[in-house]
Amino acid sequence: MKNIFIALALLFSVNIFAQPKEVADALKLYQKAKAETEHPKKSLNLATWIKYSDALVTLYDAPIKSIWPGATRVDLKILLNDQRIDKTEERKYQDQTYSVDIYPDKELIYSQEGVLAAWILTKVYMEGDLLGDAVKALEKASVLDTKGTKTKEISDKLLAIKNRYQNEAMSAYTLGNYKKASGYFEAAAAIGTNKLINQVDTVLTYYAGLTATMAKEPARAIKFFNMALESGYDAKGDAFSYLAESYKAENDMEKAKGILENGFSKYPTNQSILVSLINAYLESNDDPNKILDLIKKAQENEPANASLYYAEGNVWKNLKEMEKALACYQKSIETDPNYYYGSFAIGAAYYDRAVDIQTKATEEMDDAKYEALVKQLEENLEAAIVPFESCFSICPDQEIKMVVAEYLKNIYFRFREKSEEYKANYEKFNSFLESSKK
């Protein structure tokens, strides 16, 4: 009777926990390698720990067969041709629609372009941090490698694990699991600090902070943003604004303002820093005009720097002082006629004002007042033409040119019946946009 129960139990466990051949083979390899690390003599051999690390990585890879982000659906169906797809369904992650192939032990998530964006393992064959344990095994091997004969081999294996962590981080990010993504980015960055690698990856450190921010973990975010800044990486100024927001979340407004002032002194035209700085002054009941003092000092040091007058214009714009903003934008152009950001800002200011007037006009019931508003609307649209045309003619950036062309197309469309010139210009910019989309 006892033997029958044992047989039934074994049969039941096989049915419930049936494993793909790759997983079964990987588990056997792992068990053998693990036993060697526990052997009194073999555990003193660096090859034992390299073998154990390889076994852990093989076990990690087994359910997914080393799939990678960006792989096409066709490629992965060929790679996984011995594994069945139970069903396929549509899902939304982060407001994006994905197609999901559901296997017995995993889900592969494809973008609308048919490339792998993320994956989820639905069956865990072994609990624990396999990659983390693999790193520890390699570090143990490194300690035993007193002559350095395996330095390159160990380094290469560490970098391969770093790449796996990055892939996991991007998968978690796509799925909106920012806490998990931050952990993977941290693990990948940590490998770069290993003495055998000695390549601090500031970008991964920054992303560990960014995803920590998105996961609403400001203390962790502060840690990683500070690490990135100390290593010289600031994401063109964005690290300052994100770090400041993290300090604000920790109720340290003075630290936040200090960080933003440092960032602003380095990147006076960075809009995220500027807006965050203005908001910080407002939230702390401080005078936001203090930012203008910073800009004025910078202008005194660099009077020929057109971007500083543009930055001042942005401050006035955020303070709802549009006439002062326009004057500063004009000054940036006078300082440097090729500074197309100034021309763009003037055109956008007039266009935005026209949109605001149009909103008021649609709500106006009095005919005379309505006609007056329409006149103002058209005056502002016409005022936007010259600066937009100037920006379009001197701007080398194709994306900005397309934005400007869209503005001009809309303006000339409204005035196309006014003259043949306006009609021709509408057709010109409409054709430019159509050809640019091809």
Produce a short descriptive summary.
The chain has 438 residues and is mainly alpha-helical.
Structural class: mainly alpha
Largest sheet descriptor: 4 strands, antiparallel
| Beta fraction | 5-15%
Quantity of strands, as a count: 4
The value of Rg in angstroms is: 30 Å
Number of alpha- plus pi-helical segments: 19
Strand order of the biggest β-sheet? 1-2-3-4
First-last Cα distance: 76 Å
Query: Any low-confidence stretches, pLDDT <50, length ≥5?
Result: 1-17
Molecular shape: elongated
Helix content: 55-70%
SSE order, as H and E? HHHHEEEEHHHHHHHHHHHHHHH
Averaged pLDDT, please?
A: 90
Question: Can you describe this structure?
Answer:
With 438 residues, the chain is mainly alpha-helical. Among the domains are: 19-62 and 129-149, no CATH class; 67-124, no CATH class; 338-438, no CATH class. 68% of the residues lie in helices and 6% in strands. It contains 19 helices and 4 strands. The chain has a 4-stranded antiparallel sheet with strand order 1-2-3-4. A hairpin with a 2-residue loop joins strand 1 and strand 2 (96-102). The longest helix is centred in the last third of the chain and has 28 residues, at 367-394. The termini are far apart. 36% of the residues are buried. The model is unreliable at 1-17 (pLDDT under 50).
